[in-house]
Amino acid sequence: MDHDEALTAIASAPDARALQDLRVRLLGKKGAITEQLRGLAALDPEARRTVGRELHERKSALEAAIEARKGALERAALEARLAAERVDLTLPGPRVPAGGHHLLTQVTHRLLDVFRSLGYDVAVGPELEDDHHNFEALNFPPEHPARDAQDTFWTTDGRLLRTHTSPMQVRYMRERTPPLKVVVPGRVFRNEAVDATHEAQFHQLEALVVGERVTMADLRGAITEMATALLGTGTRTRLQPSYFPFVEPGAEFAIWWTHPKTGREEWLELGGCGMVHPNVFRAVGYENVTGFAFGFGIERLAMVRTGVTDIRDLYRGDVRVLEQFRGVA
Ligand code: FA5
Fold first, then answer.
1. Of 103, 201, 282, 289, which is the most exposed, with the fewest CB atoms less than 10 Å away?
2. Whole-prediction pTM value?
């Protein structure tokens, strides 16, 4: 290979390995140029100078060509890699699925909207309660059989997970002076044999109104207004006598509605209500006032509105169940 052929071979070496082979063949210990340089020794001084200069020039030219080709190959490799790894910043990003509120949260928000629009304050209370607020001050004396209906979980220091939202009646009244109107949403607990309609933890909404000459008619009106706001004008409500130690008289209330699945019209029993018992007012130091209270299960309302038949489905955390209820309440 003469000098020009060598330069052409270098300039068209397809990759680093081919280039390295050429370097060895031309400039290595046994390379063509090296051999020729070694041959200089046999020449006379005059020829050695001219041939030697020429050989060194060629050697430098070959080295420069090899470096240039090496640089070109490296640049080409880098460009190929950049092209392969190219990111198109104008592509739309991966879709993040939009979250949503749990059905129970939606129903709770809807209820709070209704009561706020009726002028009620919204308050929340502790889930870990004491016997005094959950029972005593609500006129459940120790050993009273009504306690059995609300068996719950106790801590070793004698406190308990509240069985209903009614203890907030006591806490709220102690912190205010009448007149007052408040609703209390919250989680409650019972030592329950769990089945399709009973969970060991569920949610209630409590309402309490206290003032001068608050009557049972006001209670009826408040329940009807809530039912109307939820289900539309003309919704009928019903009170049936019942017993809770902290109200007298006490009742269960129901609303007349059309079941969304069966299409049947029927009474939907929601919860308990009544006029605040004088012993409860005594416990919070209120005099010369009357009031009403009602409380009901939020799961119950959510289930009948959506056709969920097993309360446990609301707590399984299975998105296939829950995502059916985006924006239903
Ligand atoms: C009470 O808890 C009273 N505090 C309600 C009340 C408030 C009466 C103010 C008078 C004045 P009761 O134990 O009936 O009442 O429960 C009320 C509602 O909670 C029931 O109607 C039902 O809808 C719901 N509920 C009760 N137990 C469970 C349970 N284990 N799982 C799901 N929901 C339940």
1. 282
2. 0.74
